[in-house]
Specification:
With 175 residues, this protein is mostly helical. The protein is built from 9 helices and no strands. Helix 2 packs antiparallel against helix 3, helix 4 runs antiparallel to helix 5 and helix 5 runs antiparallel to helix 6. The relative contact order is 0.09. The model has no long low-confidence stretch (mean pLDDT 87).
Length: 175
């Protein structure tokens, strides 16, 4: 993910291909699901939604085999997030509902690292639907969380990628 955040999207995808192969050899299904979902996000970043949807489907089958509990819920939230990212504009309402679930889950865990990208994605989804008020509210909330986290975390790559995504949504909002 760090390579992708730094602009090396193809290299990141190639490295994650190796990660999927390595995870498949561990015999631990959650590693395979995690690797496939990570690769799906990298595929979306490269506008390769077909590959992303393939990995999302494969990860969904794996996640369905996990026992109920926090790990399964976490992976399900990640799956919903990736599905929303890979969705087409005509599925915007469904993507927004999925992001609502993702936000509620990670909010309950006070996990801002997962919550922030979901808020930015939902802001973009709201904007696509013409709901400027809700898009603005999500961007404001993401900005406040990011400012709060700044004192705790100094992950420049994560902050830069998040700010870039928020900036694109903000620019569209202003237009």
């Amino acid at each position: 993910q760090a390579a992708s955040n730094d602009g090396y999207k193809r290299a990141a995808r190639d490295m994650q291909d190796d990660g999927v192969v390595a995870a498949s050899g561990t015999r631990l299904p959650m590693y395979s699901a995690e690797a496939r979902l990570a690769r799906a996000r990298l595929s979306v970043a490269r506008f390769d939604t077909a590959s992303a949807k393939s990995d999302i489907a494969a990860a969904g089958l794996i996640i369905a085999t996990l026992p109920p509990g926090l790990a399964r819920s976490w992976f399900t939230a990640d799956l919903l997030f990736d599905e929303a990212l890979a969705s087409s504009p005509r599925d915007n309402d469904r993507a927004t509902m999925s992001l609502d679930s993702v936000i509620a889950f990670f909010e309950s865990l006070h996990n801002s690292r997962r919550l922030l990208p979901a808020l930015v994605a939902r802001a973009e989804s709201y904007l696509a639907a013409g709901n400027v008020t809700r898009a603005t509210a999500d961007l404001n909330r993401a900005t406040a969380l990011l400012a709060k986290e700044d004192t705790v975390r100094r992950d420049a790559s994560f902050r830069a990628s998040l700010l870039d995504a928020a900036h694109r949504v903000f620019d569209r909002l202003v237009m």
